[in-house]
Amino acid sequence: MNVLVWLTAILFLLMVLVGGSKGARSFIALFLNFSVLFITIMIMLDPTADPIILTIISSAIISCITLFFINEVNSTTKAAFASTVITIVILIFFIVMITELAMIQGFGEEEIGELYIFSFYIGVDFVKIAASVIIISTIGAITDIAISIASPMREILHHNPSISRKELYESGLSIGRDILGTNTNTLFFAFFGGYLALLIWFKDLNYSFGEIINSKVFSTEIITILCAGIGIALVIPITSSITAYYLVKVREKEGDLSK
Amino acid sequence: MKVIVDYFKRITYKQIIMCSLLAVLFTVSMLFVHHNYAFYERPIAKVIETNLLDTTEIIDDNDNEDYLYTQQITAEIKNGDEKGELIQFTNEYSTSKAYDQEYHVGNELFVSIDRSIEENEILTGTINDVKRDKYVLMISWIFIFTLLIIGKKQGLFSIISLAVNASLLSYALDVYIQTANASLLFISGITVILFTAISLLLVNGFNEKTYAAIVATLLGTFISLSIAYLVMDLTSESGLQYEEMGFLTRPPQVVFMAGVLIGSLGAVMDVAITMSSSIFGLYEKNNNIPVKALKTSGMEIGKDIMGTMTNILFFVYIGGSIPTLILYLKNAYPLPFTLSMNLSLEVARALAGGIGIVITIPIGLYTALFFINRKRAKS
């Protein structure tokens, strides 16, 4: 049997064993997210479709699946969802700008070796594709942080019903700071693992420091890692403020109703 | 106004020193990277004029429409013997820009100069690459400032941890490349132990919580690696296409396994520290909490983080292959071939990482319980 089938089966089994029905839901969510990504790529093939808008829409759907399907629709997940989408929109314009400036789109000369038989005049805007790659790579982490900040904030409000919006915001920030280190580590190592083959190859090529830092392939990797880090940091204040605003508004509404 | 004055009053000397140090570093490095032409051996030219000469519509063999533009570029050479002289290039680019580039006034390019020209004639040459160092530096600074402003002390630790881990990885790869017959898996194994100790101690300090997390991380990573190894061995790696690593002159299986090991490490560490700090947190709140209650709460926490953590790995790995997938499909390669060619390794890596994440939940739980029981026995 195929390696992928085996690994998928083992992962499914473990998720159900450890996580029960929630584990099964998480597994299905992975599958659904994969399908959304697949459909997005299929639509991206059409040169008239704007990859940026497509990325924003599919990120929204992906974070919907992750937040509402694995967890449930409540004030926390709604706030986390809004924060994720806002962060993505801010981040994507920043990334498009960077990609255009640093000209890191498409393929580098080191990658072209085995691709030389391909036609590169395919009409799809690779600057926008490059930006959407960075966003798609980070969307999982951004959603994770948003929910990790929003849920304890609701607990804090629950235990201190009279907390002010500002205090709630501050506690959100402090939760965010506490998880910042481990979350950036998760992403950095994931990228390192993915880039390992390329890193070894660059070492084999004996490039000088100047050649490495300026080469398209390597600078793309650094810029992707750094943009992912910026995104992870950015989602902390955004989630804290939106969740604080939303939860306090909900509290006031409920207060009005009970009067 | 008073708010601002109060704000400045609260700033300590330490912060002032830190800020001035950052400002100096920022200014010096930005100035350097904009004037470092002399440090490069390759000739650098700065574009001072561009003219669009020609636009043609092209349709390739697979009916993809694109436009091909030809631009004439005049640039000034910034280093070497020809410093200050003008040079001309013709450059072709398409709207898709997958393997070409439109240049604008102000761009700095690495070029090669044609030597065989007569005197008093304008130099000509070819463009090799773009000078990207200033952009990499600029984004590094944006990253540093964002993390420091939002994350404060924790942001600083994240930056340090990235820098230390990246240097460690680079050093480990150097060792691997320079030593004949060195086993990459062995070197990665050692590096993983160092990575785990450094990152977790840096973020969480020296305490039992961290020790429990380190033990759980190492157990989780190596067990998941063994599972992946066993599966690959039993199926004789059927379904894995190593062609995308075709450029490597080294055995791709080993490189792939080392990638799995390092790639899942961050996520596994995250799970391990989340499990151990929440269980220790419950224990510290109530020293007499029964083991059974700790187990139940621990599993609940594990269930909550399982889904999003596996998601993170999936998107990191699959996201990166989007451009190649589009290139293949636009070149009329059949979908199953394209997917198996470009995604098999990424999906396998994500699945193996996911297995690591899920298996670390019970491992993290029982390691933390072990440490708590030892603590209880002592007191």
From TrEMBL, chain A:
Keywords: Membrane, Transmembrane, Transmembrane helix. The chain crosses the membrane at residues 28-45, 52-70, 82-103, 115-142, 186-202, 223-248. The keyword Kinase does not apply. InterPro entries: UCP031503_TM, YibE_F. It comes from the Bacteria. It comes from Aquibacillus halophilus. It holds the Pfam family YibE_F. This is YibE/F family protein.
